[in-house]
Amino acid sequence: MRFATVIGHYFIWHYGRAIRDLTKIYRQLIVFVFNFFSVSILVNSYFAPWRRMGEAYPDKSVDPFDYLSTFTVNLIMRCVGIFMRTVVIVVGMLATLLLILSYPIILLVWLILPFGVVVVFFIGFGLLFR
Questions:
Q1: How far is residue 16's CA from residue 19's CA, in Å, rounded to a whole number?
Q2: Could you tell me the pTM of the whole model?
Q3: Residue 99: left (phi > 0), alpha (psi -120 to 50), or beta?
Q4: Local confidence pLDDT in tens for the 130 residues of the chain
């Protein structure tokens, strides 16, 4: 009698509270992956130089070559920054999308898991008397 009560409470938990908790944890995991790749920060600083690398413009020089070389270096650093940020943003968005798309599969596995245990039990029981 006590065993049947435990089984009943387990199924109530498994198909009730556990699904709500799984969904809540999954949402937090999606936010974590999105923040792990810093997608919003990278989008906001998209045109910044890579790792703040660059040269300062000369103060007292009148030579246009100095200005042009500084401009070229800063432009290259911004292009490197755009490329690197694009790669990280794309990888972060793909990881987040993959995580979002895997939720139905995980939920389906969670829903059929108790029946899988029963099936495996009977298969093992059948192998015992083979």
A1: 6
A2: 0.78
A3: alpha
A4: 788 899 889 889 999 999 999 999 999 999 999 999 999 999 998 888 877 777 777 777 677 888 888 889 888 888 998 999 999 999 999 999 999 999 999 999 999 999 998 899 999 999 998 8
